[in-house]
Amino acid sequence: MTCTHCGRANLEGGVRCTYCGTPFPPRLDFDLNEAASSSVAPPFSAPSGGSPIIRRAGFIGTLALLAFKLKSLFVLFKFGKIAVTLGSMLLFIVADAKLFGWRFGVGVALSIFVHEMGHVYVNWRKGIPQSAPMFIPFVGAVIFVKRFPDDPTIESESGAGGPAAGMLAALFCLVVGQVTGDRFWTGLASFGFVINLFNLVPFPPLDGSHISSVFSPKIWNAVLITLLLWVIKVPSAMLWLVLIVGFIFRLGEGDGGRHLLAPPIVRIRMAFVYIFLCVTLGYGSEATSASRRQVLPRPETQQTRSPLVASDLEKTRKSNQSSRLQSRQSITPQLDAFLNPSDAGRQQVLSIFRVFFFLITVGLWSLTAFLLASASNRRFGLKSFGFIGAMISVLGLIYVFDSLFFAFGEHYGGALLGAYFAAALVAFGSAVYGWINRAKDPALSLFLRTVRCVGWAAGTALLIAYGFSNVAIFGFVAVLALLFYGRFRWLAFARLATWAQDFGDTDLALRSTQRALALCHDPESAAYLNLTIARLLTANDCGGAALAALDARSQLLTLYGTPEAVAVTRSIAELELRTIALTLLERYEEALSVCEAILQAQATDPMGRARLLVVHFRLSQIALFRGWADEAKAQTEWCLRVVKQNKPMAAILRGRLALSDALGGNLPEAISQCEQALALSRESSIKAMVSSVRAEISLKSAAPAEAEKEALSAVKAFPLHLAYRYRYGVALGANGKGAESKTILDALAHDFPNEHWGRLSAEA
Q1: What's the pTM?
Q2: Which domains does the chain have, with CATH numbers?
């Protein structure tokens, strides 16, 4: 659309000119010709005779209706549902009794029944309509939920109810078996542990997939690492299955954002529940596995055979055993000669092994360095050879370390070399993964990619040290880590900033990143830290310092970076950050120019397909800051139509719609949008945004006490956020607390005089 006032072209979707603010004439949302033609045609007219397909469908529908009526009559009986459960359970017992005996069949049926009743109890407490448990012979039992909730919290708790009840039933059988000394009860307990642990496999439709519906990617990582550390020390075949399927599921699943519907505390609680169930059931299944094998009847073998056949089988077994013994005796001298050669032979074997191991190691680290350089848009140059040399130096240190301790009679070479080789393999795998996914974070420097890769290698070595309880490997890795972080101290602060950001502490994350930047001497890494600082500052509505960080980043990459690294500064992600910063500084013309640059960005940009969405989203923010509530709402609604399936983004857009409606005076709609935003996400950032909007709504509704309460909630979550601090100060003033309000607003006006919120504070 072209503005009639300023003559500039605008994107579709707005109601004002984004440059001068001139309202556009109203437009019709439908085609008159299409509307007229559709109104003439009758809504529906069925043929009198009907086609054979329709007649057959009517006959089938009649039968279905009669069946439904008969089912309804059956349900009218008082014990209709109980009869279905008991009848199917009886069939289950009869089928299992054919294989395992009636006693074991009854025990298994009751164990499964308790498991299903755990689901039934949780669903009943949550008010979820459900069917009675129905048993399926040789498979198990199932319940049908008639209306599954959208809230993953309910789904997760319902999924955990079954394995928890089944675990309690298995523990009860175990206690009875220990008290009575009857192996049947212990075997039944073992079977209960196994089937409930199998249900925790995170694959639909098993219970594990329902429990994990609230897990965020980071919680998934923590759960998998915890289970791995446990299963290494306490092996369990079924728990290994849970772990492997969970790892595959974690790799293949994208971040759909469904976990955002559950509060963070629920995610953490259900992660602990899942880990506790897995560990307890895994330990119980392994501890009682012998009893399970004794209780389960084995197929009849020699008892059902004739004495002649049995004797022939025994002769054959003894003959095979003697032949294996003879072959083993013939191989043993050669094997002993290879494994235990003479002194001269041993030295020759060790020399060949060291050369072979050295060549493989050089090849692995060379490929790793090449992939890291390629992922960072760098050439395989001097830095790459320096990295390879450092890794080969570590191999030399292993030989020196082993030689020193060998003089005291201790030999650690085999364990250290094994851990080193495993670490090299994992580092290579990490480099391959980083190269494949290099477009996700193109701004990451070569040094930081290398540090991430070496971190995976060190973690692998520590995992091997943990698995084999090898103190030498652990001490060797610890010494290397201390030397590395002593040389690059800023990395410790950068890691602390990452952890703080994961836990939502933006204040600590910002201070730690700034400290890391002060200590960093690698220009490309310093440029990346400046980008991180800009992201944190724009998230707190602080534009001046964010723009300065972006300018510093561009300057560093221009002086020390490669042309590819400089091109990254013109990516859509960084241009969007610059747009936000300029908007916060009320430099709207420059912000609109950057939006035009976003539309002209290269199609190879990872966000190339989303450029139009980014521009519309930023136009809505510019309109809000200019006070054009109608334009902000129109632009946000355009974005919302595009991102219907992206729940995190939809929650943010709902919050912006709520603010647009509040500023435009449509308070009921603003309240409704706040509720919809919370229905999409329970993240702390969304809650704080909604609290801030509710404070604005309360101020418009002349409810200053409620406004102060909501604004304080937002400030507590994000104390550095300028918009939240401004609304809190205004709410305090409206509530009669002028001194406190003046302190907050004066501080904002003094510290941020060029910012949007600083100017509003000065005017207030």
Answers
A1: 0.74
A2: 79-295 (no CATH), 343-487 (no CATH), 683-764 (1.25.40.10)
